[in-house]
């Protein structure tokens, strides 16, 4: 496979990773674009026999070249029930999240992560342990699930509940989703793309975001149809069939950046 073909094949998932890491479509895509420019300037070559690992390693070199990305941001946080969670997030540097996402979201093994991050396997293990503790220290929030397949909806509800959150409703159509928002505003939305009556999860989310700002995680069996770079795209994306650990890490990332933005008040259950 040529370098160009290898990059094209991995690009949608790299963009998903970049967005999950930065919490922003624009920021994540900017880092990916910088990575591609660096590869082209280097002669369009990817070192090593594994194109995916080499591409992600090139991305990390660009990302880690920005000093802000290697240290924790310590900013004033509001008082209230979410204060303890905020203190935990403030202490957490980006490096544990990098290792956590590479392992849980992208499925890289510890030796691969060590090579990409240029640290020892022992350090990777320490980062994963730290991330597991810190990223789990999220505020409790209310979650709306938009999913028309009962078994998948039940699986998502179980995962969300296991993380300590509260599922307010499970909507099967765009109409039900909009009605659910009117009844109770959630702190997070998990949305399938294709719904029971042929309506669109994308349209449902657009209606929801018009009513209130809320972090959204899309769920789809065809991520490449959303990650085309041709239109506004989701920052957080879960691919069907999903692994439970992927759902957990994406939920944690979405709430992490939502809390950092200071948008969401703590749930009454917090």
SSE order and pairing:
Blueprint: H1 3-22, H2 25-41, H3 51-64, H4 83-91, H5 94-104, H6 110-117, H7 121-135, E1 142-146, H8 150-162, E2 166-171, H9 174-183, E3 188-192, H10 201-211, E4 216-220, E5 236-239, H11 244-261
Parallel strand pairs: 1-2, 1-3, 3-4, 4-5
Helix pairs in contact: 1-2, 1-3, 2-3, 3-6, 5-7, 6-7, 9-10
List keywords for this structure.
single chain; 270 residues; alpha/beta; Rna Polymerase Sigma Factor, Chain: A; Arc Repressor Mutant, subunit A; Rossmann fold; 11 helices; 54% helix; disordered C terminus
Question: What this model shows, in words?
Answer:
The chain has eleven helices and five strands; from the N terminus they run αααααααβαβαβαββα. The protein has 270 residues and is an alpha/beta fold. The chain has three domains: 66 residues, RNA polymerase sigma factor, region 2, helix turn helix motif (Rna Polymerase Sigma Factor, Chain: A, Orthogonal Bundle); 67 residues, Winged helix-like DNA-binding domain superfamily/Winged helix DNA-binding domain (Arc Repressor Mutant, subunit A), CATH 1.10.10; 120 residues, Response regulator (Rossmann fold), CATH 3.40.50.2300. A five-stranded parallel β-sheet has the order 2-1-3-4-5, with helices on both faces. Helix 6 packs across helix 7.
Oligomeric category? single chain
What string, H for helix and E for strand, traces the elements in order?
A: HHHHHHHEHEHEHEEH
CATH class of the largest domain: Alpha Beta
- Global morphology: globular
- Compute the average pLDDT: 79
Strand content: 5-15%
Major sheet details: 5 strands, parallel
Given helix and strand content, the structural type is alpha/beta
CATH superfamily of the largest domain: Response regulator
**Biggest sheet: strands side by side, in what order?**
2-1-3-4-5
Number of strands: 5
Low-confidence stretches: 73-92, 263-270
- Our Rg estimate from Cα atoms comes to 19 Å
């Amino acid at each position: 496979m040529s370098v160009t073909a290898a990059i094209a094949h991995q690009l949608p998932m790299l963009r998903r990773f970049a967005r999950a890491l930065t919490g922003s479509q624009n920021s994540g895509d900017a880092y990916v674009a910088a990575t591609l420019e660096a590869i082209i300037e280097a002669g369009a070559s990817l070192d090593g026999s594994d194109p995916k690992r080499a591409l992600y390693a090139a991305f990390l070199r660009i990302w880690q070249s920005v000093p802000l990305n290697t240290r924790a941001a310590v900013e004033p946080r509001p008082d209230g029930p979410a204060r303890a969670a905020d203190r935990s997030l403030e202490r957490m540097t980006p490096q544990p999240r990098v290792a956590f996402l590479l392992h849980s979201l992208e499925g890289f093994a510890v030796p691969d992560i060590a090579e990409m991050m240029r640290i020892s396997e022992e350090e990777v293990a320490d980062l994963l342990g730290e991330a597991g503790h810190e990223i789990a220290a999220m505020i409790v929030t209310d979650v709306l699930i938009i999913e028309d397949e009962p078994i998948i909806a039940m699986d998502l509800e179980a995962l969300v509940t296991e993380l300590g959150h509260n599922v307010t409703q499970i909507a099967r159509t765009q109409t039900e989703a909009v009605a659910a928002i009117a009844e109770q505003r959630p702190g997070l939305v998990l949305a399938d793309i294709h719904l029971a009556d042929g309506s669109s999860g994308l349209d449902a989310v657009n209606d929801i975001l018009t009513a209130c700002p809320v972090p959204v995680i899309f769920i789809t069996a065809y991520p490449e149809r959303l990650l085309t770079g041709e239109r506004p795209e989701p920052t957080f994306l879960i691919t069907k069939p999903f692994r439970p650990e992927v759902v957990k890490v994406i939920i944690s990332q979405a709430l992490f950046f939502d809390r950092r933005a200071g948008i969401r008040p703590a749930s009454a259950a917090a």
